[in-house]
Tyr recombinase domain-containing protein (Mycobacterium bourgelatii), 96 residues
Amino acid sequence: MLLLAYTGLRWGEAIGLRVHDLDLLRKRASISQNAVQAGRHIHVGTPKAHKQRTVPLPEFLVPYLAVRGQGPRWLAVAGRRRRPFTPPAPDFGVVR
């Protein structure tokens, strides 16, 4: 969530980040793909308007994004078992 809040990335851009997209020395992330969930499948494509861009990474986020021992094609932001995060379901204030 901090990554989204402090960089302005969209959800799909954040979960589409790969290790090779991160330049932690220069504190930059290259946004070149977007991940979209359709049903149970995740489709990876180009970002909105098909434009690649780079965004600055705040220094305090760098330790959270430091990925050691992972290949360049691995997801940089992932959940358990290196699978992409899925967005939380909307609650709409339903009492359970």
